[in-house]
Design brief:
With 500 residues, the chain is α/β, with parallel strands linked by helices. It has 14 helices and 25 strands. The longest helix is centred in the N-terminal third of the chain and has 23 residues.
């Protein structure tokens, strides 16, 4: 084996591969290695724009930050962004190449193999080590023929594999054994260790099972990682965050749960801010008591807007705004606030035109040209409650296809590169922007919170914001410390070097 790569695969999706990769990358950074993340193919609606204006999956962005590296699209050459239950936008090397059904993509995958290999080799040449993440499970034998992300990737990189199982789900021994049994002889030979993840309790109780498992699969158990409540951005919309309240503040923030919700990482940062209590709303009734309603991004703006109408949530949002309640839209959610949305070329939707919520004086048109760029927003409000924040800078990024045309009643509040991006209504209680990451440094929420409290007659004023960048650094070090204490790191380095 080459001695420059290590692959983390799982017995299923959501077993904790992404977090373990991030922890291992931070450990390697602490130990003086320049290590990079890699995942051949992601399927996610939480994405990121690199400095080059290229789009990649959020998990590898987080892992790059853990490794102390600038996110690079070579870390995630293929990204699938579902637009419906049957179709996904396919992004290769940061650029969209089309929208495909599952069968169309299956036919397209062989053409991607050489691209993925070339991208991986180029990345590997720049670092001391690469930590590769698999997707789902390598035991999906119906997908083996077209595999580009699990064992086929391990073979292409000549990488040893560590297999991860989630004990919190139950049946971890059966899932690890079953996965090993469904691998071919050559694939089993690549598996050099297993890790049991998300354990709650005393690991000593597992000792008899660990010994039996090792005897059955002839692979060592490298460690048992305890359950970690991780405050890092998630990539997958299969998340417990949608069913729980985050934060313990006095301001009730309801994020509308859209069918194709995208980049909800914006609101993970929001939940960390002092005074914020964030929950996801699925019904009109769940919006009634909110101090702030947030419409998030989406991969399918018009159809998600129509779905809101079917659920009666559009009327609840409009009622809230008409009463003077605060409404904030981000990206696709911002576009929904306009008067009309048009998609004549079916860039995002099968629907050509739909009436918006009519809360902002603007019209939205979708075109094939997608804007992906890192961006700095500057508060440019001339009047209203944001006028004293004029000149405040908000770092973030843009990923959107829609373009807005503003009417005379749209009041600018945020400019990007000297051009108006975000607008608000005359009352200042409905506003939006395409800028993702707008809450990451906490400054905007601090202003929002102070304004909402003032409207309620609460003169508590602004509270010191929390920086997402600082929190990430603390979390990376914390999870690295937990994993270092829970697994045999020396054995992992031997596996990486091809000595095991």
């Amino acid at each position: 084996m080459r001695g420059k790569s290590l692959m983390i695969q799982g017995t299923a999706s959501s077993v904790g591969k992404s977090v373990l990769c991030a922890a291992l990358l931070r450990i390697m950074k602490q130990d003086g290695l320049r290590a990079a993340p890699f995942k051949a193919q992601n399927m996610a609606l939480n994405s990121f724009a690199t400095r080059d204006g290229l789009e990649m999956g959020r998990a590898q962005v987080t892992q790059a930050q853990a490794a102390g590296l600038e996110p690079d699209v070579r870390m995630n050459p293929v990204l699938l962004k579902p637009t419906s239950d049957r179709r996904s936008q396919v992004i290769v090397c940061g650029r969209p190449v089309g929208t495909m059904t599952a069968m169309e993509y299956h036919s397209y995958k062989p053409a991607l193999r050489e691209t993925i290999r070339e991208v991986y080799d180029a990345l590997e040449a720049t670092v001391d080590a690469v930590v590769i993440e698999g997707a789902g499970s390598p035991a999906e034998i119906n997908l083996r023929e077209g595999d580009i992300v699990n064992m086929a990737m391990a073979e292409a990189a000549d990488a040893p594999v560590i297999l991860v199982g989630d004990i919190d789900l139950g049946g971890v021994f059966a899932s690890l054994l079953g996965t090993m049994m469904l691998l071919s002889d050559a694939e089993r030979a690549r598996v050099k260790g297993v890790i049991i993840n998300k354990f709650r309790g005393d690991p000593a109780i597992l000792a008899p099972g660990l010994r039996m498992l090792e005897e059955l699969i002839h692979v060592p158990v490298l460690g048992v990682v305890p359950w970690m409540d991780v405050e890092l951005e998630e990539e997958d919309s299969v998340t417990a965050r949608f069913s729980r309240v985050s934060g313990a503040g006095d301001l009730d923030i309801a994020v509308v749960q859209l069918a194709h919700i995208a980049n909800f990482t914006d609101f993970q940062a929001l939940a960390l801010q002092p005074g914020a209590r964030v929950r996801y709303a699925r019904t009109a009734a769940e919006l009634e008591s909110a101090d702030l309603i947030v419409l998030p991004g989406t991969k399918n703006t018009i159809e998600d807007l129509l779905d809101l109408r079917r659920r009666g949530m559009d009327a609840a949002i409009v009622r809230h705004a008409r009463r003077g309640g605060m409404v904030l839209g981000v990206c696709g959610g911002y576009q929904m606030l306009g008067r009309v949305l048009r998609d004549p070329e079916h860039v995002e939707s099968r629907v050509q035109e739909a009436a918006g919520l009519g809360l902002l004086d603007m019209e939205v048109a979708f075109s094939g040209e997608k804007r992906t760029a890192q961006a700095v927003g500057e508060v440019c409000a001339q009047d209203g409650w944001l006028r004293n924040a004029r000149g405040l800078l908000l770092d973030g990024y843009e990923i959107h296809a829609g373009r807005c045309a503003f009417g005379p009643e749209a009041a600018p509040w945020l400019c990007i590169s000297g051009c108006v991006d975000g607008v608000m209504n005359a009352q200042g209680n409905v506003l939006g922007t395409h800028l993702h990451g707008l809450f990451d440094d906490g400054q905007l929420f601090s202003l929002l919170a102070a304004h909402i409290r003032a409207q309620k007659g609460d003169d508590a004023g602004a509270q010191a914001p929390v920086s997402m960048a600082q929190l990430r650094e603390r979390e990376f070090d914390r999870i690295a410390s937990i994993v270092r204490a829970s697994v045999d790191v020396d054995a992992i380095y031997r596996i990486l070097r091809g000595e095991a």
